[in-house]
Amino acid sequence: MNVGVLALQGAYHAHVRTLRSLGVSATEIRKPADLDGLSGVILPGGESTTMSMLLDSSGLRQPLTELGNSGVAMLGTCAGLIMLASRIADGRDDQLPLGLLDVDVQRNGYGRQLDSFECELDVDINGMQRMHGVFIRAPKITRIGQGVRVLAALDGIPVLVEHGVCLGASFHPELGNSTLVHRHFLQLAEASAPATTPPLTHLGSR
Predict the structure, then answer these.
(1) Is 166 a catalytic site residue?
(2) Quick check: pTM over 0.85?
């Protein structure tokens, strides 16, 4: 299995490290050709306005959208969640999301840099499990569409959601002490991959 991590801007290195720690090949995506042969794509945290502009200048916006619409698994964390969303409540006119996940988000919904925080989250993946959440200028999910499943919430507000093979997190699972979200994403990617993809048998339970 080969999973791509959008590497135009932002905190993509930690996602690459996490994937490789799980024994999964990780490709850094910088141009359309890097999308070839991927089983899944991670859109990392960073600055969502800059990320949106770089998707256009790199020529990645259309092929990435087509890849997501074709059923390839997608994971968006923090700014990546903003990019996957249907609508950005307070986005600039030139900041266009990909529309692959039926949620609306508010940029910096939990406050600016000084308001960043960490907390424990109860996550509904294979039963309720506990994991550490790192929120850095985190977006807030303000609407979820029909069929979107809430996997974790904070004070009643969704912070981890799933729709089909698309996952979105307001926080940074790659910066916590658990690989739970990444392992779940890899299982979604495996389920959506062609039958020739070798099964994942090595993922642990950290």
Answers:
(1) no
(2) yes
- Map tokens 């904070």 to a residue: 154
Number of structural domains in the chain: 1
Residue position matching structure tokens 């791509």: 4
Averaged in consecutive runs of 10 residues, what is the pLDDT profile of the chain (206 residues)?
95 95 97 96 93 94 96 96 91 78 90 82 96 94 97 97 97 94 96 56 53
Q: Which residues contact 159 (CB under 8 A, 6 or more apart)?
A: 121, 133, 135, 138, 141, 152, 153, 169, 170, 171
Residue pair 103/111 in contact (Cβ under 8 Å)? The answer is no
Report if residue 199 sits inside a domain. Answer: no
- Active-site annotation holds for 174: yes
The CATH number of residue 19's host domain is: 3.40.50.880
98 Cβ contact list (under 8 Å, min separation 6):
61, 64, 65, 68, 83, 84, 85
Which of 163, 174, 184, 190 is catalytic? The answer is 174
